[in-house]
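Researcher: We plan to redesign the surface later, but first we want a full-length starting point. Tokens attached.
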């Protein structure tokens, strides 16, 4: 596989393992530990969100956006199993050795039996629930702040079928990555807690003459803007397009992506997960 000048953009497992090791120990781990929290804010509506955060490309944790969501009040793993138990889903889809299809109800039972068993955490990633459980949308009305999605202009309201649920077990990890196609990240936390590490779009890790990688130089660059946050139920995180982000589930968790495309593009940098 062709290797890039920026280690973060390499998608092979060896490169991912190097990055993950440095997130756990070394200059990057130390920088993350002392990094500031992403600002938390309640906004009055889309206009304030556009002016204060989207236009200046500034990350934020938005509070109060989900207060009208039935999902925030009613959802649990058991509730979803009662509604979508027979629905086929693909678990651990980003790991070719572990990916498999099974009914959603069986996935929930596996979560229960897997807890504390010393097994890798289970993760249901990017479930396009509107294709096989569309009625769940009634519990998660679209966010008013996300209506600027360029794809909506092109394709109309059906673009909402792109919404995804991310459901997983404590300890599951989405590796550090950038989303593709100039997508702004808007992730709503419904159940449980997720820890987010974010870095600005231009963040890079170059090679050293010794053969290693310059993580120390990376963290010393103030433009890289390393930040963190813990998303609790009811929180929505906004990240501008191409910002790097890594997510680890601090508890069993359910969240929904309602991402928005800022402009058309034909480049692609797919995400790749290697759950711990």
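Model: Full-length starting sequence:
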């Amino acid at each position: 596989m062709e290797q890039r000048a920026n280690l973060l953009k390499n998608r092979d497992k060896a490169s991912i393992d190097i990055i993950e090791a440095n997130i756990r120990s070394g200059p990057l781990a130390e920088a993350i530990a002392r990094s500031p929290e992403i600002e938390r804010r309640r906004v009055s509506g889309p206009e304030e969100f556009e002016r204060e955060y989207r236009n200046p490309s500034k990350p934020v944790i938005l509070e109060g956006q989900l207060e009208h969501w039935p999902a925030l009040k009613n959802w649990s793993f058991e509730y979803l199993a009662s509604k979508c138990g027979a629905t086929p889903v693909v678990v651990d889809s980003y790991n070719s050795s572990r990916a498999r299809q099974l009914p959603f109800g069986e996935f929930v039972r596996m979560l229960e039996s897997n807890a504390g068993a010393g097994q890798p955490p289970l993760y249901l990633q990017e479930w396009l629930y509107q294709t096989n459980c569309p009625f769940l949308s009634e519990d998660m009305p679209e966010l008013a702040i996300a209506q600027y999605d360029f794809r909506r202009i092109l394709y109309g309201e059906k673009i909402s079928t792109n919404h995804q649920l991310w459901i997983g077990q404590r300890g599951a990890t989405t590796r550090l990555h950038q989303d593709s196609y100039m997508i702004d990240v808007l992730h709503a936390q419904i159940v449980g807690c997720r820890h987010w590490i974010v870095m600005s779009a231009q963040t890079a890790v170059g090679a050293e003459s010794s053969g290693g990688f310059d993580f120390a130089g990376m963290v010393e660059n103030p433009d890289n803007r390393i930040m963190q946050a813990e998303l609790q139920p009811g929180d929505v995180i906004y990240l501008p397009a191409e910002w790097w982000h890594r997510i680890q589930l601090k508890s069993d968790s359910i969240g929904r992506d309602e991402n928005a495309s800022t402009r058309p593009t034909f480049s692609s940098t797919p995400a790749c997960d290697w759950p711990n």
